[in-house]
Design goal:
With 125 residues, the protein is α+β, with helices and mostly antiparallel strands. The chain is 17% helix and 47% strand. It has one domain: Roll (DNA Polymerase III, Chain A, domain 2).
Amino acid sequence: MKLEAKREQLLKPLQHVIGAVERRQTLPILTNVLVSARERELTLTTTDLEMELSVRVELQVETPGETTLPARRLHDILRALPDDASVTLSVEGDKATVRCGRSRFTLIHPAGRRFPHPGGLTVRR
């Protein structure tokens, strides 16, 4: 998976769904955000197994794919970047890389297919 976007195109949707991510979880995967990239659409999904939050954003995707990333860590990285920054997110193997200018952040992630989907309430934006 590979995509390039402005910082705000990633940060704002992440802020909409991060409410379902609790700091302490019995299942570590629940601290992650499911990132699904298709041709012209990025979907971010979080869950606490009772509620699922999902948001879709229109943006150009170079290479489609799906993965999970540590939600709070990704949020902190995006918040620390300059407002008008261009961000590249790429995934190869079990590592995701967030690049902005000369900065590079590497995140280890579990496979996206392990992300649970609750049978409860779903809120989509």
